[in-house]
Amino acid sequence: MGDLKLTTVEEMEAATARLLETGAKVGADAWQLRVKNQTPHCKFGEQGVCCRICAMGPCRITPKAPRGICGCDVHGIVGRNYLKFTAGGAATHSDHGREICHTLYEAKPDGAYKVKDPEKLIRIAKEWGVETEGKDIYDLAHEMAETALMEYGKPFGVQRWLKRAPEHTQKLWHDAEIEPRAIDREVATSLHMAHMGCSSLPEALVRQSLRAGLADGWGGSMCGTEFSDVLFGTPKPLDTEANLGVMNADNVNIVVHGHDPSLSEMVCEYADDPEMIAYAKSMGAKGITVSGVCCTSNEVAMRRGVPMAGNFLQQENVVLTGACEAIVVDVQCIFPALGPLSKCFHTKFITTSPIAQMPDSDYIRFDVGTAAEKAKQIVMTACENFKNRKPDLVYIPDMKQKATVGYSFEALVKTLDGVTNSQVDVTGTTKPLIECITSGVIRGAVAMVGCNNPKIRPDYAHIELMKKLIANDIVVVASGCSAQAAAKAGLMDKAAKDLCGAGLKRVCELADIPPVLHMGSCVDISRMMILVAELSKDSGLNISQLPVVGCAPEWMSEKAVSIGNYVVATGIDTFLGVDPYVAGSSEMGQWLTEGVRDWVEAAYTVETDIEKLVDKMIDRIEEKRTALGI
Ligand code: BF8
Ligand code: SF4
């Protein structure tokens, strides 16, 4: 070992610059150019002080105009905007979860979608009190899918998944009146509260923001993760690669992008089909390479080892390689720019979901009933497009790293069994990890999540923070585009143990893991919630006492704010590198960074200076250790 050479952000930027030269040749637009046209951003929007929720406005708050026409003050306006932002994110994650439940409902032993993890299905059924004895697994799948779908609209009660949380956490939620009821209800109530003439009290708006967030993390997202595992298999550690160099100039390149694994799983299935590979060869290619962008990539990387071409702000780069025959998208985080950009190349931009329809795309509507035939059609379309490639435009940066991925909660527990010194049997629990933390071999853990955002040098914050954390013996669990940043840099290569402090390095060696563990897509942050819940139960400590924090240094989406709310509401201090449009209200700032601590024992820290951000996280972890006397 010791031969790991990380890929630097400078090298990635140089590769992007080279790709943008190709773009310039064909007159392509790019986010780097559009950012220039959009900056400086509108100050009112940036501070969250603009309101346009009724047609008397838009109203914007200034020292001279401290209230909107209806009399709403800046705190009400910023608070409503924040709640709406959260509701957008909670709706989006949860609707993804709902789609997965529908896919599960359609699963058949001889159909395109099967139950790949029956054991997990039975485990969840028992947890929910659903009779499993003597039941056909597909009958059970349909019953569970229907039960889960009811969680979205049930008239009474709270989310079933909340019972997974430690009792103390459940009590905090109950006492603060933030236990999420039906998922759709929390989204609708949020929009209702943020309507003209409803709530303008920051406390009420923040409380509902936490509740809507919890409806996501401990509701819709958990459905998404758990039933995706049932359908496609629970991830286990496996090796893959990351960065643009995973694309292969000799092959038909299909890039899957978006979030819902129902589409990408099928595309991968057909791309492996010998008939399709023969078809690609008949078109002059040597084979088919599927790679991914964004969370769909995380999903198929975790379960199939499909390589990750890049994260959010690299989505245009895959087309700029000139070697992308088709970029196939489902929902969320897809740049509408891909349509016009693809027209500058031979690339087919294939949209598939009624939820994400875009100009300049080929729309191949994908649904559960016709999944197999549509996936085949998509793969064939890509193969047929190989001959339209313009060889003089092809340039794939020779840049990739090895990554070991697939650390679902189940896989993590199994893996960590290898590091215990305990005399008693602790297998199948989080106790080995607790031992490492209490003994100080590992100082704590950070959940690194979220997007890229041009406001932060792309990937730089993710990578630099992770390097410093692991050097300080803090293990990192990562998801979403943060995980992909780590993988591209090389931090998910097991050899990255050499960048760790002595304690974490030893754990990495004993457990044979990289120091940054890929836990999946953003929806899979529910896996992290399960992990902290089990750490709390196994240690007897409250979640807020654990030396664990969350961090989204480059976030950009509404989903990220919804996530932030449920991570904080779960008792985990959360550090943001981008302000969530609340700078305009001192009261909202106070509620989010301090006030919520009285309800949920955790709060936000916003810090745009990356150096300070990492130091604050380390300090927070050490404070928690001191409080525990460890
Ligand atoms: O849900 S991290 S840019 S891809 S929003 Fe999007 Fe952000 Fe990436 Fe996945 Ni998550
Ligand atoms: Fe203006 Fe009030 Fe209407 Fe908002 S709700 S646009 S502050 S009048």
UniProtKB/TrEMBL annotation:
Needed cofactors? [4Fe-4S] cluster
Q: Which Gene3D superfamilies match?
A: 1.20.1270.30, 3.40.50.2030
Query: So which domain of life are we looking at?
Result: Bacteria
Give UniProt keywords alphabetically. Answer: 4Fe-4S, Iron, Iron-sulfur, Metal-binding, Nickel, Oxidoreductase
Report the top EC class in one word.
oxidoreductase
MF terms from GO for this chain are: 4 iron, 4 sulfur cluster binding; anaerobic carbon-monoxide dehydrogenase activity; hydroxylamine reductase activity; nickel cation binding; peroxidase activity
Q: Which InterPro entries does the record associate with it?
A: CO_DH_a-bundle, CODH, HCP/CODH, Prismane-like_a/b-sand, Prismane-like_sf
According to its UniProt entry, one GO biological process term is: generation of precursor metabolites and energy
Per UniProt, [4Fe-4S] cluster 2 binds at: 51, 54, 59, 70
Q: Which residues bind [Ni-4Fe-4S] cluster?
A: 259, 295, 333, 451, 481, 522
Keyword ATP-binding listed? The answer is no
Reactions accelerated catalytically: CO + 2 oxidized [2Fe-2S]-[ferredoxin] + H2O = 2 reduced [2Fe-2S]-[ferredoxin] + CO2 + 2 H(+)
EC assignment: the record states 1.2.7.4
> Quick one: which residues bind [4Fe-4S] cluster 1?
42, 50
NCBIfam families documented for this protein: CO_DH_cata (TIGR01702)
Q: What is this protein called?
A: Carbon monoxide dehydrogenase
